[in-house]
Amino acid sequence: MYKDTMKTNRSNMDCPFHRMNRRNFIIGCAAISGVLIDESYKTYAAQQPTKKRIRIIYSLHSLKQQGPDWPNKGFDFEPFINRTNQELQQKFKNYEFLTSTATGEQQANKIIEEDKDKNIDGYIVFQMNCWNRVVQFVAKINKPVLYVDFKYGGSGGFLTYTSTFIRQNARNVGFISSPRTSDLFEAVKCFDAIQNPGDEQNFASLVAEVRKRNTPSPGKIKLKQDFLRTIPIQNCIVRFKESKILAVNNMQPGPAGQIMGIPIVRVPFSELNDAYKNADKDEAKLIAAQWELGASKIEGVSWDTLKESAAMYLAEKELLKKYRANAITINCLGGFYGGHITAYPCLGFHQLNNEALVGGCECDIRSAATMVAFGILTNGRPGFISDPVIDTSKRQIIYAHCVASNKPFGPNEKKCPYQILTHSEDRQGASVRSMFPEGYMVTTLQVSNDRKSILMHQGKAVGNDPDDRACRTKLIAEPFGDIEKLFTMWDQWGWHRVTFYGDLKNRVYELADAIGWKVIEEA
Hints:
Blueprint: H1 2-11, H2 16-19, H3 22-47, E1 52-59, H4 78-91, E2 95-102, H5 105-114, E3 122-127, H6 135-139, E4 145-149, H7 155-167, E5 173-176, H8 181-188, H9 203-214, H10 233-242, E6 245-249, E7 254-259, E8 262-268, H11 269-277, H12 281-294, E9 297-299, H13 303-323, E10 327-330, H14 332-337, H15 346-354, E11 358-360, H16 365-377, E12 384-391, E13 396-401, E14 418-421, E15 431-434, E16 441-448, E17 453-464, E18 473-479, H17 490-493, E19 497-501, H18 505-515, E20 518-521
Parallel strand pairs: 1-2, 1-3, 3-4, 4-5, 6-8, 6-10, 9-14, 10-11, 17-20
Antiparallel strand pairs: 7-8, 12-13, 12-19, 13-18, 14-15, 16-17, 16-19, 17-18
Protein backbone atom coordinates (compact mmCIF):
# COMPACT_ATOMS: atom_id res chain seq x y z
CA MET A 1 0.00 0.00 0.00
CA TYR A 2 2.77 2.34 0.84
CA LYS A 3 4.45 1.77 -2.47
CA ASP A 4 1.15 2.31 -4.33
CA THR A 5 0.60 5.58 -2.50
CA MET A 6 4.06 6.79 -3.37
CA LYS A 7 3.46 5.79 -6.93
CA THR A 8 0.29 7.82 -7.05
CA ASN A 9 2.02 10.86 -5.49
CA ARG A 10 4.83 10.67 -7.99
CA SER A 11 2.34 10.57 -10.82
CA ASN A 12 0.91 13.88 -9.57
CA MET A 13 4.22 15.72 -9.07
CA ASP A 14 3.48 17.87 -12.13
CA CYS A 15 1.00 19.78 -9.87
CA PRO A 16 2.91 22.60 -8.19
CA PHE A 17 1.13 22.07 -4.88
CA HIS A 18 2.46 18.52 -4.80
CA ARG A 19 6.03 19.87 -5.21
CA MET A 20 5.71 22.31 -2.25
CA ASN A 21 7.85 21.60 0.79
CA ARG A 22 7.85 23.69 4.01
CA ARG A 23 10.34 26.24 2.65
CA ASN A 24 8.44 26.72 -0.62
CA PHE A 25 5.17 27.01 1.26
CA ILE A 26 6.48 29.87 3.39
CA ILE A 27 7.93 31.69 0.37
CA GLY A 28 4.69 31.32 -1.52
CA CYS A 29 2.61 32.65 1.34
CA ALA A 30 4.93 35.61 1.72
CA ALA A 31 4.63 36.44 -1.95
CA ILE A 32 0.84 36.33 -1.85
CA SER A 33 0.83 38.34 1.37
CA GLY A 34 3.16 40.92 -0.18
CA VAL A 35 0.79 41.44 -3.08
CA LEU A 36 -2.14 41.85 -0.71
CA ILE A 37 -0.23 44.32 1.54
CA ASP A 38 0.92 46.35 -1.44
CA GLU A 39 -2.61 46.63 -2.79
CA SER A 40 -3.95 47.51 0.66
CA TYR A 41 -1.30 50.24 1.09
CA LYS A 42 -2.16 51.74 -2.27
CA THR A 43 -5.82 51.80 -1.30
CA TYR A 44 -4.96 53.33 2.10
CA ALA A 45 -2.66 55.96 0.59
CA ALA A 46 -5.28 56.92 -1.96
CA GLN A 47 -7.76 57.49 0.83
CA GLN A 48 -5.42 59.74 2.85
CA PRO A 49 -5.59 63.56 2.32
CA THR A 50 -2.49 64.89 0.58
CA LYS A 51 -0.62 67.74 2.24
CA LYS A 52 -1.44 71.16 0.91
CA ARG A 53 1.66 72.86 -0.42
CA ILE A 54 1.71 76.58 0.35
CA ARG A 55 4.37 79.02 -0.80
CA ILE A 56 5.16 81.88 1.62
CA ILE A 57 6.76 84.96 0.07
CA TYR A 58 8.11 87.80 2.20
CA SER A 59 8.09 90.98 0.13
CA LEU A 60 10.97 93.19 1.31
CA HIS A 61 14.21 94.97 0.40
CA SER A 62 16.52 92.62 2.29
CA LEU A 63 16.52 90.47 5.42
CA LYS A 64 18.33 93.24 7.27
CA GLN A 65 17.23 96.63 6.05
CA GLN A 66 20.08 98.71 4.68
CA GLY A 67 18.33 101.98 3.85
CA PRO A 68 15.73 104.36 5.28
CA ASP A 69 12.16 103.13 5.02
CA TRP A 70 9.51 101.68 7.25
CA PRO A 71 10.03 99.93 9.69
CA ASN A 72 13.49 101.58 10.02
CA LYS A 73 17.07 101.39 8.87
CA GLY A 74 18.87 98.36 10.30
CA PHE A 75 15.65 96.47 11.04
CA ASP A 76 16.23 92.71 11.15
CA PHE A 77 13.31 90.78 9.62
CA GLU A 78 14.77 87.32 10.21
CA PRO A 79 13.44 86.78 13.76
CA PHE A 80 9.88 87.52 12.63
CA ILE A 81 10.24 85.37 9.51
CA ASN A 82 11.74 82.42 11.38
CA ARG A 83 9.15 82.62 14.14
CA THR A 84 6.27 82.85 11.65
CA ASN A 85 7.53 79.90 9.60
CA GLN A 86 7.95 77.80 12.72
CA GLU A 87 4.51 78.70 14.12
CA LEU A 88 2.77 77.94 10.84
CA GLN A 89 4.49 74.57 10.47
CA GLN A 90 3.66 73.61 14.04
CA LYS A 91 0.04 74.66 13.69
CA PHE A 92 -0.60 73.12 10.28
CA LYS A 93 0.84 69.59 10.29
CA ASN A 94 -1.11 68.76 7.15
CA TYR A 95 0.52 71.59 5.20
CA GLU A 96 3.89 71.81 3.55
CA PHE A 97 5.27 75.37 3.56
CA LEU A 98 7.88 76.55 1.08
CA THR A 99 9.48 79.86 2.02
CA SER A 100 11.14 82.55 -0.08
CA THR A 101 11.75 86.30 -0.24
CA ALA A 102 11.29 88.70 -3.14
CA THR A 103 12.18 92.33 -3.67
CA GLY A 104 9.96 92.96 -6.67
CA GLU A 105 8.65 91.83 -10.04
CA GLN A 106 11.72 89.98 -11.29
CA GLN A 107 12.14 87.78 -8.24
CA ALA A 108 8.38 87.28 -7.90
CA ASN A 109 8.10 86.01 -11.48
CA LYS A 110 11.12 83.75 -11.01
CA ILE A 111 9.48 82.11 -7.98
CA ILE A 112 6.22 81.71 -9.88
CA GLU A 113 8.01 80.10 -12.84
CA GLU A 114 9.91 77.66 -10.61
CA ASP A 115 6.66 76.75 -8.84
CA LYS A 116 4.92 75.56 -12.01
CA ASP A 117 6.00 71.94 -11.48
CA LYS A 118 5.69 71.93 -7.68
CA ASN A 119 1.90 71.60 -7.34
CA ILE A 120 1.56 74.73 -5.25
CA ASP A 121 -1.94 74.98 -3.75
CA GLY A 122 -1.75 78.62 -2.68
CA TYR A 123 0.38 81.56 -1.63
CA ILE A 124 0.85 83.69 1.46
CA VAL A 125 2.46 87.07 0.73
CA PHE A 126 3.66 89.22 3.63
CA GLN A 127 4.12 92.92 2.76
CA MET A 128 7.19 93.62 4.92
CA ASN A 129 8.34 96.91 3.31
CA CYS A 130 5.89 99.37 1.84
CA TRP A 131 6.32 99.54 -1.90
CA ASN A 132 7.84 96.25 -3.10
CA ARG A 133 5.60 95.04 -5.92
CA VAL A 134 5.33 91.28 -5.46
CA VAL A 135 1.75 90.37 -4.60
CA GLN A 136 0.44 91.80 -7.89
CA PHE A 137 2.25 89.13 -9.90
CA VAL A 138 1.36 86.30 -7.57
CA ALA A 139 -2.32 87.28 -7.77
CA LYS A 140 -2.33 86.89 -11.57
CA ILE A 141 -1.69 83.13 -11.59
CA ASN A 142 -5.18 82.26 -10.37
CA LYS A 143 -4.16 80.54 -7.16
CA PRO A 144 -5.60 81.51 -3.78
CA VAL A 145 -3.47 84.26 -2.25
CA LEU A 146 -3.50 85.35 1.40
CA TYR A 147 -2.10 88.90 1.58
CA VAL A 148 -0.80 89.96 5.02
CA ASP A 149 0.30 93.36 6.35
CA PHE A 150 3.44 93.54 8.49
CA LYS A 151 2.27 96.33 10.79
CA TYR A 152 4.44 99.48 10.67
CA GLY A 153 6.51 97.89 7.94
CA GLY A 154 4.56 97.31 4.75
CA SER A 155 1.36 99.13 5.65
CA GLY A 156 1.43 101.83 2.97
CA GLY A 157 1.81 99.40 0.10
CA PHE A 158 -0.54 96.96 1.76
CA LEU A 159 -3.37 99.50 1.95
CA THR A 160 -2.74 100.78 -1.57
CA TYR A 161 -2.44 97.36 -3.21
CA THR A 162 -5.35 95.92 -1.22
CA SER A 163 -7.69 98.69 -2.33
CA THR A 164 -6.73 97.89 -5.93
CA PHE A 165 -7.59 94.21 -5.42
CA ILE A 166 -10.95 95.24 -3.96
CA ARG A 167 -11.60 97.60 -6.87
CA GLN A 168 -10.68 94.89 -9.39
CA ASN A 169 -12.81 92.32 -7.55
CA ALA A 170 -9.83 89.95 -7.28
CA ARG A 171 -11.78 87.11 -5.74
CA ASN A 172 -8.73 84.86 -5.28
CA VAL A 173 -6.97 87.39 -3.01
CA GLY A 174 -7.93 87.52 0.66
CA PHE A 175 -6.26 89.95 3.04
CA ILE A 176 -5.71 90.45 6.74
CA SER A 177 -4.50 93.60 8.47
CA SER A 178 -3.83 92.25 11.94
CA PRO A 179 -0.61 91.49 13.85
CA ARG A 180 -2.42 88.85 15.92
CA THR A 181 -1.11 85.35 15.19
CA SER A 182 -4.48 83.71 15.80
CA ASP A 183 -6.00 85.87 13.02
CA LEU A 184 -3.29 84.66 10.64
CA PHE A 185 -3.97 81.05 11.58
CA GLU A 186 -7.71 81.36 10.97
CA ALA A 187 -7.10 82.96 7.60
CA VAL A 188 -4.66 80.20 6.61
CA LYS A 189 -7.36 77.62 7.36
CA CYS A 190 -9.31 79.06 4.43
CA PHE A 191 -6.95 77.16 2.12
CA ASP A 192 -8.68 73.95 3.31
CA ALA A 193 -11.81 74.99 1.43
CA ILE A 194 -9.96 75.06 -1.89
CA GLN A 195 -10.54 71.53 -3.18
CA ASN A 196 -11.53 71.87 -6.82
CA PRO A 197 -10.70 74.15 -9.74
CA GLY A 198 -12.69 77.35 -9.40
CA ASP A 199 -12.78 77.25 -5.59
CA GLU A 200 -10.06 79.91 -5.49
CA GLN A 201 -12.68 82.42 -6.63
CA ASN A 202 -14.28 82.10 -3.19
CA PHE A 203 -11.06 82.69 -1.28
CA ALA A 204 -11.42 86.46 -0.79
CA SER A 205 -14.90 86.07 0.69
CA LEU A 206 -13.76 83.23 2.98
CA VAL A 207 -10.93 85.34 4.39
CA ALA A 208 -13.26 88.34 4.67
CA GLU A 209 -15.56 86.27 6.91
CA VAL A 210 -12.61 85.46 9.17
CA ARG A 211 -11.45 89.08 9.23
CA LYS A 212 -14.88 90.45 10.07
CA ARG A 213 -15.52 87.80 12.70
CA ASN A 214 -12.26 88.67 14.48
CA THR A 215 -12.72 92.45 14.30
CA PRO A 216 -14.14 93.73 17.61
CA SER A 217 -17.50 95.45 17.63
CA PRO A 218 -17.45 99.26 17.99
CA GLY A 219 -16.94 100.46 21.52
CA LYS A 220 -19.15 102.90 23.36
CA ILE A 221 -18.89 106.36 21.84
CA LYS A 222 -18.38 108.47 24.94
CA LEU A 223 -16.48 111.61 23.99
CA LYS A 224 -14.88 114.37 25.99
CA GLN A 225 -16.36 117.80 25.50
CA ASP A 226 -14.60 119.85 22.85
CA PHE A 227 -15.38 123.55 22.50
CA LEU A 228 -14.70 123.81 18.78
CA ARG A 229 -15.11 127.29 17.31
CA THR A 230 -15.41 127.63 13.56
CA ILE A 231 -15.74 130.65 11.29
CA PRO A 232 -18.46 131.26 8.68
CA ILE A 233 -17.99 129.37 5.42
CA GLN A 234 -17.99 132.51 3.26
CA ASN A 235 -15.23 133.98 5.42
CA CYS A 236 -13.29 130.74 4.90
CA ILE A 237 -13.56 131.03 1.14
CA VAL A 238 -12.27 134.61 1.23
CA ARG A 239 -9.34 133.60 3.41
CA PHE A 240 -8.50 130.67 1.11
CA LYS A 241 -7.83 133.17 -1.68
CA GLU A 242 -5.72 135.29 0.64
CA SER A 243 -3.60 132.27 1.61
CA LYS A 244 -0.57 130.88 -0.21
CA ILE A 245 1.26 127.56 -0.13
CA LEU A 246 4.99 127.40 -0.92
CA ALA A 247 5.98 124.08 -2.51
CA VAL A 248 9.73 123.61 -2.08
CA ASN A 249 11.31 121.08 -4.40
CA ASN A 250 14.00 120.64 -7.00
CA MET A 251 12.14 122.59 -9.70
CA GLN A 252 11.78 125.92 -11.43
CA PRO A 253 10.15 128.69 -9.36
CA GLY A 254 6.78 130.21 -10.18
CA PRO A 255 3.00 129.86 -9.78
CA ALA A 256 1.62 126.31 -9.77
CA GLY A 257 -2.15 126.73 -9.85
CA GLN A 258 -4.49 126.50 -6.89
CA ILE A 259 -6.43 124.07 -4.73
CA MET A 260 -9.82 125.15 -3.34
CA GLY A 261 -8.86 128.68 -4.35
CA ILE A 262 -5.59 128.53 -2.38
CA PRO A 263 -2.69 129.66 -4.62
CA ILE A 264 0.41 127.44 -4.93
CA VAL A 265 3.89 128.82 -5.63
CA ARG A 266 6.91 126.66 -6.51
CA VAL A 267 10.15 127.51 -4.72
CA PRO A 268 13.52 125.81 -5.48
CA PHE A 269 15.63 124.18 -2.78
CA SER A 270 18.33 126.78 -3.34
CA GLU A 271 16.17 129.57 -1.89
CA LEU A 272 15.45 127.57 1.23
CA ASN A 273 19.08 126.60 1.59
CA ASP A 274 20.24 130.20 1.25
CA ALA A 275 17.78 131.28 3.93
CA TYR A 276 19.04 128.47 6.15
CA LYS A 277 22.65 129.57 5.76
CA ASN A 278 21.73 133.17 6.57
CA ALA A 279 19.60 132.34 9.63
CA ASP A 280 20.53 134.19 12.81
CA LYS A 281 22.65 131.74 14.82
CA ASP A 282 21.86 133.30 18.20
CA GLU A 283 18.15 133.23 17.53
CA ALA A 284 18.47 129.60 16.43
CA LYS A 285 20.16 128.75 19.74
CA LEU A 286 17.35 130.40 21.68
CA ILE A 287 14.68 128.45 19.80
CA ALA A 288 16.60 125.19 20.22
CA ALA A 289 16.84 125.85 23.95
CA GLN A 290 13.08 126.41 24.14
CA TRP A 291 12.44 123.11 22.36
CA GLU A 292 14.87 121.34 24.66
CA LEU A 293 13.21 122.82 27.74
CA GLY A 294 9.70 121.93 26.56
CA ALA A 295 10.40 118.31 25.56
CA SER A 296 9.61 115.58 28.07
CA LYS A 297 12.33 113.45 26.49
CA ILE A 298 15.19 113.91 24.02
CA GLU A 299 16.86 110.81 22.66
CA GLY A 300 19.49 110.43 19.93
CA VAL A 301 19.38 114.12 18.99
CA SER A 302 22.44 116.29 19.65
CA TRP A 303 22.48 119.95 20.57
CA ASP A 304 24.00 120.74 17.15
CA THR A 305 21.09 118.97 15.44
CA LEU A 306 18.62 121.00 17.49
CA LYS A 307 20.36 124.23 16.43
CA GLU A 308 20.34 123.15 12.77
CA SER A 309 16.62 122.35 13.02
CA ALA A 310 16.00 125.77 14.56
CA ALA A 311 17.94 127.46 11.75
CA MET A 312 15.76 125.56 9.24
CA TYR A 313 12.66 126.82 11.07
CA LEU A 314 13.93 130.40 10.71
CA ALA A 315 14.55 129.74 7.01
CA GLU A 316 10.97 128.51 6.60
CA LYS A 317 9.67 131.63 8.34
CA GLU A 318 11.83 133.81 6.10
CA LEU A 319 10.35 132.29 2.95
CA LEU A 320 6.81 132.66 4.29
CA LYS A 321 7.51 136.33 4.97
CA LYS A 322 9.14 136.86 1.55
CA TYR A 323 6.20 135.38 -0.38
CA ARG A 324 3.48 136.53 2.04
CA ALA A 325 2.44 132.94 2.49
CA ASN A 326 0.95 131.06 5.42
CA ALA A 327 1.97 127.54 4.44
CA ILE A 328 5.10 125.73 3.29
CA THR A 329 5.56 122.12 2.24
CA ILE A 330 9.02 120.75 1.49
CA ASN A 331 10.25 117.63 -0.28
CA CYS A 332 12.14 116.82 2.91
CA LEU A 333 13.34 113.31 2.04
CA GLY A 334 14.40 114.17 -1.50
CA GLY A 335 16.02 117.38 -0.31
CA PHE A 336 17.91 115.79 2.56
CA TYR A 337 19.06 112.62 0.78
CA GLY A 338 19.81 114.55 -2.41
CA GLY A 339 22.06 116.99 -0.57
CA HIS A 340 19.83 119.97 -1.44
CA ILE A 341 19.20 120.77 2.22
CA THR A 342 21.40 119.97 5.20
CA ALA A 343 18.81 119.79 7.99
CA TYR A 344 15.42 118.18 8.27
CA PRO A 345 12.55 120.72 8.35
CA CYS A 346 10.44 118.70 10.79
CA LEU A 347 10.90 120.60 14.05
CA GLY A 348 10.30 123.77 12.07
CA PHE A 349 7.02 122.34 10.81
CA HIS A 350 6.12 121.42 14.39
CA GLN A 351 6.68 125.03 15.44
CA LEU A 352 4.78 126.52 12.48
CA ASN A 353 1.79 124.29 13.15
CA ASN A 354 1.80 125.43 16.77
CA GLU A 355 1.58 129.02 15.51
CA ALA A 356 -1.52 128.52 13.30
CA LEU A 357 0.68 128.42 10.20
CA VAL A 358 1.21 125.29 8.12
CA GLY A 359 4.33 123.15 7.78
CA GLY A 360 3.56 120.21 5.53
CA CYS A 361 5.61 117.10 4.83
CA GLU A 362 7.03 115.68 1.60
CA CYS A 363 5.91 118.52 -0.69
CA ASP A 364 2.41 117.01 -0.56
CA ILE A 365 0.46 119.99 -1.85
CA ARG A 366 -2.97 118.38 -1.44
CA SER A 367 -2.33 117.64 2.22
CA ALA A 368 -0.91 121.14 2.74
CA ALA A 369 -4.07 122.59 1.19
CA THR A 370 -6.18 120.38 3.49
CA MET A 371 -4.22 121.72 6.46
CA VAL A 372 -4.68 125.32 5.30
CA ALA A 373 -8.40 125.05 4.51
CA PHE A 374 -9.53 123.31 7.66
CA GLY A 375 -7.05 125.15 9.84
CA ILE A 376 -8.81 128.32 8.73
CA LEU A 377 -12.25 126.80 9.23
CA THR A 378 -11.40 125.65 12.79
CA ASN A 379 -9.92 129.01 13.79
CA GLY A 380 -6.31 127.85 13.87
CA ARG A 381 -6.40 124.18 14.80
CA PRO A 382 -3.44 122.33 13.25
CA GLY A 383 -3.88 119.36 10.96
CA PHE A 384 -1.79 116.26 11.55
CA ILE A 385 -0.59 114.85 8.23
CA SER A 386 0.00 111.11 8.53
CA ASP A 387 0.57 107.70 6.97
CA PRO A 388 -2.32 105.65 8.38
CA VAL A 389 -2.19 101.99 9.42
CA ILE A 390 -5.25 99.79 10.01
CA ASP A 391 -5.27 97.12 12.71
CA THR A 392 -8.46 95.06 12.59
CA SER A 393 -7.52 93.02 15.68
CA LYS A 394 -8.27 96.11 17.77
CA ARG A 395 -10.59 97.85 15.31
CA GLN A 396 -8.20 100.79 15.13
CA ILE A 397 -6.61 103.15 12.66
CA ILE A 398 -3.23 104.58 13.60
CA TYR A 399 -2.11 107.92 12.14
CA ALA A 400 1.69 107.84 11.98
CA HIS A 401 4.18 110.57 11.06
CA CYS A 402 7.32 112.30 12.32
CA VAL A 403 5.83 115.81 12.38
CA ALA A 404 3.06 116.81 14.74
CA SER A 405 1.88 119.86 16.64
CA ASN A 406 1.51 119.55 20.39
CA LYS A 407 -1.32 122.11 20.39
CA PRO A 408 -4.13 120.11 18.77
CA PHE A 409 -6.85 122.54 19.92
CA GLY A 410 -5.15 125.65 18.56
CA PRO A 411 -2.22 127.97 19.33
CA ASN A 412 -3.74 129.46 22.47
CA GLU A 413 -5.14 126.24 23.92
CA LYS A 414 -3.71 123.53 26.13
CA LYS A 415 -0.55 121.70 25.09
CA CYS A 416 0.16 117.99 25.14
CA PRO A 417 3.55 116.43 26.01
CA TYR A 418 6.08 115.90 23.24
CA GLN A 419 9.42 114.17 22.79
CA ILE A 420 12.27 114.95 20.41
CA LEU A 421 13.70 111.86 18.71
CA THR A 422 15.49 110.96 15.51
CA HIS A 423 13.43 109.95 12.51
CA SER A 424 12.67 106.30 12.95
CA GLU A 425 13.27 105.40 9.30
CA ASP A 426 16.91 106.55 9.14
CA ARG A 427 17.83 107.33 12.76
CA GLN A 428 18.93 110.82 11.70
CA GLY A 429 17.87 114.42 12.27
CA ALA A 430 15.22 115.50 14.73
CA SER A 431 11.51 114.71 14.75
CA VAL A 432 8.62 114.96 17.17
CA ARG A 433 6.57 112.41 19.04
CA SER A 434 3.46 114.22 20.19
CA MET A 435 1.40 112.47 22.84
CA PHE A 436 -2.07 113.45 21.70
CA PRO A 437 -4.97 113.63 24.17
CA GLU A 438 -7.45 110.75 24.34
CA GLY A 439 -11.23 110.68 24.39
CA TYR A 440 -11.93 113.35 21.77
CA MET A 441 -13.53 113.10 18.36
CA VAL A 442 -11.15 113.50 15.44
CA THR A 443 -12.01 114.20 11.81
CA THR A 444 -9.65 112.95 9.09
CA LEU A 445 -9.69 114.58 5.67
CA GLN A 446 -8.07 114.82 2.25
CA VAL A 447 -8.99 117.11 -0.65
CA SER A 448 -8.76 116.59 -4.38
CA ASN A 449 -8.97 119.48 -6.80
CA ASP A 450 -9.29 117.10 -9.76
CA ARG A 451 -12.24 115.26 -8.27
CA LYS A 452 -13.72 118.36 -6.66
CA SER A 453 -14.13 116.18 -3.60
CA ILE A 454 -13.33 116.01 0.10
CA LEU A 455 -12.60 112.57 1.53
CA MET A 456 -13.56 112.16 5.19
CA HIS A 457 -13.82 109.73 8.06
CA GLN A 458 -14.15 110.26 11.79
CA GLY A 459 -13.21 108.46 14.96
CA LYS A 460 -12.39 108.69 18.63
CA ALA A 461 -8.80 109.28 19.75
CA VAL A 462 -7.99 106.40 22.10
CA GLY A 463 -4.23 106.55 22.65
CA ASN A 464 -0.68 106.86 21.34
CA ASP A 465 1.56 104.01 20.23
CA PRO A 466 5.28 104.34 21.18
CA ASP A 467 6.34 101.44 18.93
CA ASP A 468 9.87 102.04 17.63
CA ARG A 469 8.95 101.00 14.10
CA ALA A 470 7.75 103.53 11.53
CA CYS A 471 7.13 107.21 12.25
CA ARG A 472 7.44 108.61 15.77
CA THR A 473 3.99 110.10 16.42
CA LYS A 474 1.26 107.46 16.29
CA LEU A 475 -2.20 108.68 17.20
CA ILE A 476 -4.58 105.76 17.67
CA ALA A 477 -8.26 106.18 16.86
CA GLU A 478 -11.28 103.94 16.78
CA PRO A 479 -13.00 104.80 13.50
CA PHE A 480 -16.72 105.42 13.33
CA GLY A 481 -18.69 103.55 10.71
CA ASP A 482 -17.60 100.60 8.57
CA ILE A 483 -13.93 99.76 9.05
CA GLU A 484 -14.14 97.41 6.06
CA LYS A 485 -14.94 100.38 3.83
CA LEU A 486 -11.76 102.06 5.09
CA PHE A 487 -9.75 99.63 2.95
CA THR A 488 -11.17 100.86 -0.35
CA MET A 489 -9.82 104.35 -1.18
CA TRP A 490 -6.06 104.27 -0.82
CA ASP A 491 -5.12 103.54 -4.44
CA GLN A 492 -7.31 106.43 -5.59
CA TRP A 493 -6.39 109.00 -2.94
CA GLY A 494 -2.86 108.11 -1.87
CA TRP A 495 -1.62 107.20 1.56
CA HIS A 496 -1.61 110.59 3.34
CA ARG A 497 -4.53 111.81 5.40
CA VAL A 498 -4.86 114.93 7.59
CA THR A 499 -6.45 114.64 11.04
CA PHE A 500 -8.02 117.46 13.06
CA TYR A 501 -9.35 117.38 16.58
CA GLY A 502 -13.06 118.14 16.62
CA ASP A 503 -16.32 117.17 14.93
CA LEU A 504 -16.03 118.88 11.55
CA LYS A 505 -18.54 116.77 9.65
CA ASN A 506 -21.37 119.28 9.23
CA ARG A 507 -18.95 122.08 8.44
CA VAL A 508 -17.20 119.94 5.82
CA TYR A 509 -20.52 119.38 4.07
CA GLU A 510 -21.34 123.10 4.26
CA LEU A 511 -17.99 124.02 2.72
CA ALA A 512 -18.37 121.43 -0.03
CA ASP A 513 -21.85 122.75 -0.89
CA ALA A 514 -20.56 126.33 -0.98
CA ILE A 515 -17.75 125.61 -3.46
CA GLY A 516 -19.63 123.02 -5.53
CA TRP A 517 -17.69 120.01 -4.33
CA LYS A 518 -18.87 116.69 -2.92
CA VAL A 519 -17.98 114.79 0.26
CA ILE A 520 -16.97 111.13 0.16
CA GLU A 521 -17.21 109.31 3.48
CA GLU A 522 -14.61 106.55 3.40
CA ALA A 523 -16.02 104.70 6.42
